[in-house]
C-alpha cells in the first residue's frame, strides 16, 4: 500500500484498515524514511517515533472527520502536491520536512466544532487568541509544544530550528479557511512568475500546497470522496446537535432534521472554495495529477447534485401524498 503513496488514487481508508486505525504513524514514518530526513537531520529514530505517536494521540479519536486519519490524508496529499516537477527540485530537505510536519499537525487537538461554536459557547481559546484564527493558532502552538517536549530537534543548529518553526507557523496559520481569498490573491500575484526562486515565493507555494491538501477530499475518487463528505457532515450535524442542547444560535446547515449531506455538498463548498483554488493550482503546476483532481471534483459535484435532486423529489412526493390523504379524509 505504501508503495502507492505517490499516486493520487491512494486510499488512506484502506491503509487505516490494514494498520488497525494507525495509518498516521505508518504513513508519516514511511515518508520520513523515503525523504531521508532521519539521516539528513541526524534524528534519533526512537524520539522521532515517540513524537509521531504524540501527534497521533493529540488528535481526538471521537471526531468523525478531524482526527488522525484526516491528518494522514493531508500528509499524503501534500506529498503528492510537492512532488510536481516545477516544485520538488527547488525545495530543500528542511522545507520538505516542515511541509510534511505541518500537514501532520495542522488540525492537532481539533475540538470537532468550528470557531463560531467556540465563540458562542465562550470557549477559553477564543479569548486566548483574541478571536483570530482561534483553531489554527491552537494547532500551531500545540505542534511547537510537542516538538519541544519530544526534543526530537533539540540538536538542530538554531538557524535550522528557527526556519523550521517559522515555516510550521505560516503553513498551519494559512489553513484558516476564512483567509482563503487573501491567500489566493497573493498566490495569483506571486505565481505569475512560474519559477520557484525566492524564500517568499516558495513559502506561498507550500502554503497553497497545504491548503489544497487540506480541502482535497472532493477531488478524490467518488468512493473515497463520498466517505469524507459523510464524515465531515456527521461532524457538522453533531455540532448542530450540541448547539440545540446548549441553546446556542443554530447553524441552519448543521441541523440534521433540515439538512442532508448532499445539500451541504452542493451548497457551494466545491464551487466557491475548492474549485477556484484547484484551478489556480493547475495553472501554476499543470500535470496529469492536477487535471485528475479537477476532473474528480467536477464528477463528484454532478453526483451530489443528482443525489440532492432525488432527495428533493422524494420529499415533494411525500408532501403530495400527505396532502392527498388530508384532502380525501
Ligand atoms: N467535503 C466538505 N464539505 C464541506 N466542507 C468541507 C469539506 N471538506 C472540508 N470542509 C471544510 O473545510 C475546512 C478546511 O479546514 P478544516 O479542516 O479546519 O475544516 C474543514 C471543513 O470545515
Ligand atoms: Zn484539516
TrEMBL record:
Binding site for Zn(2+) 1: 70, 106-107, 214
Residues engaged in binding Zn(2+) 2: 107
Residues binding AMP: 66-70, 107, 214, 265
Active site: 66
A Gene Ontology molecular function term of the record: metal ion binding
Keywords recorded for this protein, A-Z: Hydrolase, Metal-binding
Record has Nucleotide-binding as a keyword: no
GO BP: negative regulation of cAMP/PKA signal transduction; signal transduction
Every PDEase domain range: 1-311
Record InterPro entries: HD/PDEase_dom, PDEase, PDEase_catalytic_dom, PDEase_catalytic_dom_sf, PDEase_CS
Pathway membership: Purine metabolism; 3',5'-cyclic AMP degradation; AMP from 3',5'-cyclic AMP: step 1/1
Catalysed conversion reaction: 3',5'-cyclic AMP + H2O = AMP + H(+)
Pfam families: PDEase_I
PANTHER family: CYCLIC NUCLEOTIDE PHOSPHODIESTERASE
Name listed for the protein in its UniProt record: PDEase domain-containing protein
